[in-house]
Amino acid sequence: MSERILIMVEASVTPAVFQECRTLGSQLAGSLGAAVGVALLPTTRMQLIRATLQAAGGDRYVEAIQPATAAAPMGSAPFLWRDDGRPDWERMWTGFCELALFGGPPHRGAESALTASQLPAGEPDSDCDAIAEIVRGIRETTGLIAEPAEPGWIAVRCRSTKMAAWLCACIILENVEARCEEERLFLPASQDFALKNEVKSVITVLAKTHHYWEAHANAQATAAART
Q: Are 114 and 182 within 8 A, CB to CB?
């Protein structure tokens, strides 16, 4: 065995928990571009390992990571405007917090989750073409092309079915409704959406998840190039 990282799992855990550990190892291997070992060990062997580590220094060698508490919704980025009076979506964000998928704060709270069928939370802007702004914001922040779909939805053309599915799953965890069909990702969109509320939310949540998809895809490409 040549793995530099080894995840040790006690055999008393359920098969579902062991599978979660294997999934974690797979994600870590993809991120690092190197193999990660996952070992299922008898309880007596785990006790021996713990005793050995304790004798060698205990807490200096083992960090106990406790379950994370539910994260509060992410803070809102300042709203920026272009000289022509339109929102400057491209400059609105200089970075993103961690995805809710990995324990970061969701884009919206559960009590204010955005769905395709809900009524707007605030008054829409009469001088704003909400759907056109969502299309423009998505293009400026991700380079992806979006277009109106059936009532209540906008369709974003992804580069693959895998990309659409990954973004869809991540966006749902950010408390924004989403679904996908092959390489198309569907997000809520309505002319009744307010610019600084629902419009900004749809653009933000896709910009955030797309940012992490690009990092994920690049890591996979790097790992494949090494093999």
A: no
